[in-house]
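Re: the multi-chain job from yesterday

Posting the exact lines I submitted so nobody has to dig through the queue logs.
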Amino acid sequence: MLTRRQFVRGAVSLVSIGTTSHSLLKGAVAFAGMHPESVRAAGADRVLVLVQLAGGNDGLNTVVPFADGAYRSARTTLAVPEGEVLPIGDGMGFHSSMQRLHELWQRGKLAVVQGVGYPNQNYSHFKSMAIWQAGDPEVRLDTGWLGRTLEALEDAEHDPFLGFNVGTAPARELYSPEVAVPTVSDPDQYGVAFGGETVPGTDPRVRTLMKLYEQYPAASPHGVLLETTAETAVASAELLREAHQRYTPAVTYPETSFGAGLQVLAEAIVGGLGMRVGHITLGGFDTHSDQADRHVELLQTLDEGLAAFYADLAAQGHADRVMVLTWSEFGRRVAENANGGTDHGAASVVFALGGQVRGGLYGERPRLDQLVDNGNLGYTTDFRRVYATVIENWFGVPHEPLMGQRWEPLGFASA
Amino acid sequence: MYDLTGEVLARHWSRRRLIASGGAAAAAAALSVGAGLALSRSGSSEQEGTGDQEQGPVAAEAALNANQNGERGISDPWKRASHLLRRAGFGGTRAEIELYAALSPEEAADRLLSFDSVDNAALEERLRREGLTRDQLVRAGPRNVMHQQFERWWLNRMAFTARPLEERMTLIWHGLLTSQVTTLGSLAPLLLKQNELYRSLAVARYDDLLLATSKDPAMMYYLDTVRSSAAHPNENFARELLELFSMGEGSYTEEDVREAARAFTGWRVTPLPRPNVPEGATQRERQQALQEAVASWNPEWMLAPRLHDDGMKVFLGRRGNFGGEDIVAIVMEQEATARYITTRLFREFVYDDPAPESIDRLVDVWNRSGHSIREVVRAILAGDEFWSERAYRAKVRSPVELVVAAVRGLELGALPGGAVQAGRRRTSDSLTMLLDQMGQRLFEPPNVGGWPGGPAWLSSAALFARFNVAAEVTFPGGRPAAIPVLEAMGDAEAMVDEALLRLVDGDVPRESRDELVTHASAISDVRERAATVAYLVLCSPQFQLA
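And the result, structure tokens for all chains:
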């Protein structure tokens, strides 16, 4: 039978949806509508869901070195009491608000990479985020590391949801001028609406609008961006709405916007929208003050959300093809400040969760008796090794061309 | 050398070159349609003029010659005036555009900058009428409701002020010297005080603005200054002061951050008066008492000497027993601050990637004027870069600009929304809900870095929200709104041309105009036709840009 790629390349001019016919994207959408079984087959591919913990997550109070006396003396009020730690071995344990993730750890579904960072740590949120997003401490390219990965994946297939971002603003990790990535915050609001009622893409006003975007010259200011965004939006809306309407989660997601966002990602995965890379942000980790309560709440939101997401995917038979990866722009200062908080720090932890993830501890534990930069944890594992693991071992794409040099994968994903 | 394989590099670079080089040519091509249309409708003249016949003094100067950076100037007077009002304000009404089209760049800049002498009583009267006085705002109810009222208050100011540049500058400072309402919690009214501070120092010396910001109670709570002490300095404010508010990342060391943090220790605000809680008060009465106490509180900066570290500090190579004021003063002497702030202002008004020479000229003005924001903005607005084709539509409109420009361009009597919609998750005002979906709630930037802006405004979800806010303006509740300035036009063609002129300078490809005329002609009801035309033009790619 016809493959999606053949359809997209060959038959697009026959099946554009109401506007012009030059877009591969529209062909893919039309094809998905006509051949749902092919979507599911192609969707059997592996998926990465990237979770950004924005603000700088305190790795020390996430994966706690409770047996280390230096930890206790640096964290006079913030140290997690030993009795509240959920042990993972090696004198370390999860913060007690992460019970569900601890259970997944015990089942071997969760990998913890310790001491993740990069040379010459930058302590600015924005610079350090840009470094992680580009995958390069010098930020020499303006594309995201997953944007480049999407380009590589797109050579084999083309879907409007190949990359998919949950939120309001675009995700810079997923940025590539070659691959448009839809961004959705609430599927119910994702579409053209009048008086709160969504209208279909066949509405005459939508059709006229799309013509205005096609006629706007690509070389005019922001021309490529405007046209691809409008096209992506309209093309993805109806597919998403259908997936959203026919979706019944197998579990109840927590009533947080993080939980709601993860459910949208599950809808895309289970609904066969062809998503390979998803992205969602959990913010609020910049705990300069009152960290005790705020951090516990954030870890709990993370724990409940990811556990529900995993359970939902597992119940629907998709857990083995999905990996969740967390990251944060930096950790926090080892010593707490006077406001029951911690200032910007260096190395932190990365989690990888999934049915096919090889659980366990990776990387070397950073030493509390050998701090760098006046009181920060020195990194032991370059973050690009984590990326190499995902690109090469999870997606099967050679990482060197995308990362600029070769990095030793970590082994939490099997090839 | 970055060791990427040739293929990847080539793809990225070729794409970027295409995008970078293509803009000017296309803009020039599109101009031919726009200029003729704009001129035929501008002013009271009925004659079908050409560009030459109707060029005012603005266009006569420098318009067609390349400037010192080799950029061609915008020639059409309507486009020039409209461009100016989009950037220095929030878009013009037809009368305002005609007025500014007759001025030289210097006259136009001067008129916009001399806002102190412009009577704004009509705006204040409107705010009273809408129940948006300061006293009402700070007692508006729970924080969520109060926040929405704050937004409505400021959006009304932007839409109906007689001093557009004053509001524009206030928004610029809010986006740079940020604070977030969610962080302040029950102290949200302090953000109004901060907003009033930014308005009052909108074009002052940057030294004064930066010091006043450092001592602003909302900022002091937002970035933890009020909780920093000699024993445990909190670095939050010191870091953002250097990184975001003055010098920029990379021009200081981590040691400078720590030393600056010591200097700001012991900075506090005068205490909140004890809430007047009657005996046996219910939880609700306690809440109200607290809200009333915050509402009538007017905190001022103060120093708590015992919490202040008055020891020796080394900051940017200088030694002394510095206090916070000294840190601000030293920061203001830095070349890095001059370049960072002038670059920021250039980007706000002109385009994103100025040539070093453009910034050199502004740094010169900055130094000669004693760091006067007024003089730097004057130099930017009178500069050739501002009036270049390269600057035209180079910026992506922010969501608040989009909403306000729609109201002004169509001369609507009021902002859209305001009605409570049941069942929404976080907000109830349909306008603030849409602003949230577009990614810009006033008083709530995403983080201390403010709104990234530019292409980041244009996610697919945000574009739908932009379309849907246009529907809220033109089809509130699904029914066509009254838009007298369009309904007055006779036929579909005239109506389309009027909407295009008012909203996008009449500068669209001819086929797009024809498309709109065809669409409009099929609608017989005049009100529905006008609302539809307005909707389509507000959603057009051209209107997304400023």
